[in-house]
Design brief:
It is built from no helices and 7 strands. The protein is elongated and about 45 Å long. The protein has 91 residues and is an all-beta fold.
Length: 91
């Protein structure tokens, strides 16, 4: 049986950039492994989780409100998960 993943996203808007911290957890699984795909507008970056965490900087991003989308690919023991949250990109 595969555990359900929970993905927590903490975006921080910088000057024409977004820094996104991702933390993936699942009951009974420590640490969660796999990859996450982080998208802000048309830009995206895929990174591996280290100890269930990842940090991504995406630039350049136009100033204003943007949607951050994070998709966890899952693993053999953890199901995939998705999260989205808004962020304000500064000038």
């Amino acid at each position: 049986m595969r555990s359900a993943a929970q993905v927590r996203v903490t975006p921080v808007g910088k000057s024409r950039a977004v820094v996104v911290r991702v933390r993936a957890t699942a009951p009974g699984v420590s640490p969660v492994t796999g990859t996450v795909l982080v998208k802000v507008g048309q830009r995206s970056q895929r990174v591996s989780l280290v100890d269930g965490r990842a940090r991504v900087r995406i630039a350049p991003v136009a100033p204003g409100m943007r949607r951050v989308r994070v998709s966890y690919s899952g693993s053999e023991v953890v199901r995939s998960a998705f999260s989205r949250t808004p962020v304000r990109v500064l000038r």
